[in-house]
Structures are given as C-alpha cells and as structure tokens.
Amino acid sequence: MVLEFTEAGIYCPAADIHIDPWRPVPRALITHGHSDHARPGHGAYLSTSGSAPVIRHRLGDIRLQTIEYGEERRIGGARISFHPAGHVPGSAQIRVEVGGEVWVVSGDYKTVDDGLSTPFEPVRCHTFISESTFGLPIYSWTPQDVLARELNTWWAETAASGRHAVLGVYALGKAQRILRLLDPSNGPILTHGAVEATTAVLRAQGLDLPETIQITPETDLKSLSGAMVLAPPSALGSAWMRRLGPVSTGFASGWMRLRGVRRRRAADRGFVVSDHADWDGLNSAIAATGAERVYVTHGYTAQFSRWLAEQGYQAGIVETEFGGESLDAEDSETEGATP
Questions:
Q1: Together in a domain, 131 and 248
Q2: Within this chain, do residues 62 and 134 fall inside the same structural domain, yes or no?
Q3: DSSP assignment of 116-144
Q4: Structural domains counted in the chain
Q5: Which of 42, 73, 148, 169 could hold 174 in an S-S bridge, CB 3.0 to 4.6 Å?
Q6: CB neighbourhood size of 51 (10 A)
Q7: What is the pLDDT of residue 330?
Q8: Cα 78–Cα 80–Cα 86 angle in degrees, nearest 5
C-alpha cells in the first residue's frame, strides 16, 4: 500500500512521513491550519505557503518548510505534491505517488468557490481518502448570494431594533468568509479576540477583508450600536457575550440544516453554510478523481461508505482523530462531531 493507517496517523512507508498525524512524529505533511490537522509536537512540518502563517501563529516556533500548489517533491521513494482543497485559505489535498500508484489525502475540502480560498481542484488518483462530515443527502448548502442576503437582512433588522447581531463562526475560514459577505454600511463589525487574531494573520497575507474592531475591556460598546459581532461558537452565552447587552444570536454552520439544532442552541437565527463539502460536493469531488478505491474518514462514515459501495467503489472506513464542524469549537475545527 502507498499509505498505511497507523496509531499515529496516515503514514507513507516509502517516504517515512506522516500526513496530518495526531501523535508526535519526526516528519509531518500538513493539509491545513485547523488544530485537528495541524498539531504540536512533530519534529518537522511541511505545508503550503498559504497555510504556513496560521500554522506558525497557532503552534509557535516550529521547524516548518513550505511548498507551493502543484510543486512536486521527491521524498524517499515517493513523489509528493499539494493541490487546492478549497476548505480554508492555504488548505491542500496531498498527492502521493509510489511506483506509479497514486493516492490522494484530501484533508477537509469543499467544492464551492467561496471567493477566499483557492478553489478545489480534482486530482486524478487510484485511491482517494475523503472526509464525510456531511455525508448524507439532507446536507445542501445555501448559495453564496442568498447567504449574503440573509446575513445582511438579519443584521439590518437587528440593528434597527437596537441590538447587536452576534454570529458564532470559526476563527479560521468561516469568519473571514462571512466577513466578505457582510455589508459594512449596516454598521460596525466587531470581533472576539480569537477571530481578530486569525483575521490579522490572513490580512497580512494579502486577503482583502472589511475593517473590524476587536472587542476589549476598553471598548465603548454604547458608541458602536447595531454592530455585527463575530465570535467563536464557544463564546455565545458566555460572560464575554453578556457584556454586549441586548443581542440577537445566530450560528453559521452546516448543522443548521438539521431541525432542532438551532432550537437546542437557543439561537435566534441559523445560517446553513460550511467550509466542508455538502452531499453533492462530496459525490462530485470523488467522481472527478477517477478513483476506484475510496477510504472515508470522520463524519457519517458508515452511511457514506455504504453509499459509495452501492455506486461501485471499493469503499472502506478509516478511524482517525480528525474532527469537523461543531457548535462549540473555538479556534479548532471539530465540525464532524454531531451537536
């Protein structure tokens, strides 16, 4: 096998290297900067140049080398290259070729062009390792233009009622994606420190994002009435949020497609959006690879692998410690845990 599934993570014997390992290893290839994929403790790291600033921001002084999309590296007996995953800025699929056999580890991905990340590019392979965070037909995402209209209408109506609109979003990826959809003429955009710190890193990379104001103990919230506030989901309902005064709360998550989730979370609004592929995205991405064998990780693994087998794929399940999207994560990304 080109890749093996070990207790430390996905391993390539020909290169003596791991991909997104969850245990400390000597050398790690990293698909993107979310903390369930980029973990501390490895001897050396390799990521795209687009992911490197966030990885350094989160992990500190590590031995990190970078690679560009499409650039090929020979490591031991393997040919390795990184290709756009469309998940968050800098995210990559990793192609590994050994003896003419090609495997691709997708990490996390989405097929919708969000205008922020380098769009997903299918990579032809024999074996594809795919997430299945939202691997059921019920999951279908709101189009970008409709999402923008929904967000800005809610914000304007909330501001008109004298309240702040507080939206739960991931600090990396979704926060910046939402920022690009907001209409600043509605009012000021405020941020939790975790969101602001990551946004600053991405701004320094040249991403064009609207102006934001970080909320600190000194922030005069009365002078910033009717603001949109972007915060990690874990901050909603906390003491930090209570100092904002009257608010309307919302979640931006793929889980908002499920009836009852928003009600259980006591949110006023739910916006159906994710940086993971929906059902159609998963199926179209896998078909475009031309793969005969598909291994499924994190999410609806049993249901999705069974569906793939029915479509004629050699399908299997890989147990990993990757997460996905939850409504409690702060700067990690554990969207795969059902709320």
A1: no
A2: yes
A3: SSPPP-----SEEEEEETT-STT--PPPH
A4: 2
A5: 169
A6: 27
A7: 46
A8: 155
